[in-house]
Design a protein that fits this description.
The chain is mainly β and 123 residues long. It is 0% helix and 60% strand. Strands 2, 4, 5, 6, 9, 10 and 11 form a seven-stranded mixed β-sheet that branches.
Length: 123
């Protein structure tokens, strides 16, 4: 099972970007999904998460500006980012909690991380 993120780029302050992250593989199911970010010289921080039932949670810094959503049929999570600020500049990482069934049909649980996508917001 692997995650592939896309959608980062350069945008002016006040602009918008949409990130996508898709899980692929076989014999797995996805539970919670989310986005984290890491700015230069700072620790990675949670941006938003969404449960398998579609319940979102947001960091205070992005509430009202970012929207997380998911398409369970596609095992994909999205992050719509509006009213972007220079302080939103960071590498954004998607993550997913999964259950994978091995060759003995035994469940294996874990967390996957995507490769990171850079978002740069210019002032």
């Amino acid at each position: 099972v692997q995650l592939q993120a896309s959608g980062g780029g350069l945008v002016q302050a006040g602009g918008s970007l949409r990130l996508s992250c898709a899980a692929s593989g076989s014999r797995f199911s996805i539970n919670g999904m989310g986005w984290h970010r890491q700015a230069p010289g700072k620790q990675r921080e949670l941006v938003a998460t969404i449960s398998s039932a579609g319940v979102p949670l947001y960091a205070d810094s992005v509430k009202g500006r970012f929207t997380i959503s998911r398409d369970n049929a596609k095992n994909t999570v999205y992050l719509q980012m509006n009213s972007l600020k220079p302080e939103d500049t960071a590498v954004y990482y998607c993550e997913a909690d999964y259950i994978y069934y091995n060759s003995r049909d035994e469940p294996v649980v874990g967390r996957l991380w995507g490769q990171g996508t850079l978002v740069t917001v210019s002032s």
